[in-house]
Amino acid sequence: WLQEEHDKFLEALRMYGPKAMKAISDHVRTRTPVQVRTHAQKYFQKLARI
To answer: Which residues does the UniProt record annotate as the domain SANT (predicted)?
Structure first.
């Protein structure tokens, strides 16, 4: 994921919540809902390790 895409992902996550993959995907515009779901899973796993 590019930094710009990740920033849009975080912005959409705050706006729509962690379960709105389609809305987040529409916000990011360059990733599918499946790609967003996978990225979200890895992102939350990383947060859990910190």
So the answer is: 1-40
Domain boundaries, the chain: 3-49
In angstroms and rounded to an integer, the radius of gyration of the C-alpha atoms of the chain is 10
Long-range contacts of 35-39 (CB under 8 A, 24+ apart): 36/9, 39/1, 39/6, 39/9
Question: What number does CATH give the domain 3-49?
Answer: 1.10.10.60
Question: Is 0.85 topped by the overall pTM?
Answer: yes
For 47, the token pair is 């947060």
